[in-house]
């Protein structure tokens, strides 16, 4: 393996920014075309931390190979035990198990936080992400056709979800 998964620190933000912007430039994983600035990525990192959500990095020999995080799925109170995650791996470090290690660590953290469901909102033709999620036990929830656009093409959005091991106290609560 050679890499370790650990919570990100502020000094990891420039590497997180570089990996994010590479995905923006080269893939349809993120449906934006303008690169993020350092200030935007730092604000995102601090917001995740302040809300108690993890940002994890895969480190090897002082280098960040990839990162993953989750946050609110939707802000309404009834969704408070559901989170939406994302995982990004530097193009030179893919197909080495980094994405899987990050996603498994996120799912472990979410289960320990008493969360109930994790959702990946995935561009439907992103075979690498779909394969990664299947391998980590996520199942297909449904597809929203042509809800996005990038590089001159319509994009379909596939939701893949995983029910986490249940906390009996939380499960018995009725949400009305
Ligand atoms: C999707 C992504 C995170 C996968 O990370 P990775 O470190 O390369 O994935 P892993 O090496 O851990 O692979 C885990 C499994 O995912 C699947 N997978 C990974 N890359 C794949 C590919 N190119 N095609 C098909 N399946 C793939 C396989 O099932 C793989 O298991 P295997 O190696 O035993 O076959 C990475 O390709 C990436 O960062 N892509 C750009 C950003 C992105 O799409 N992020 C996801 C947004 S929802």
TrEMBL record:
Gene Ontology molecular function: acyltransferase activity, transferring groups other than amino-acyl groups
Residue ranges constituting the N-acetyltransferase domain according to the UniProt record: 3-165
PROSITE patterns, per database record: GNAT (PS51186)
Signal peptide positions (record): none
Keyword GTP-binding in record: no
Keywords on record: Acyltransferase, Transferase
Database matches in InterPro entries: Acyl_CoA_acyltransferase, GNAT_dom
Database matches in Pfam families: Acetyltransf_1
Protein name in the entry: N-acetyltransferase
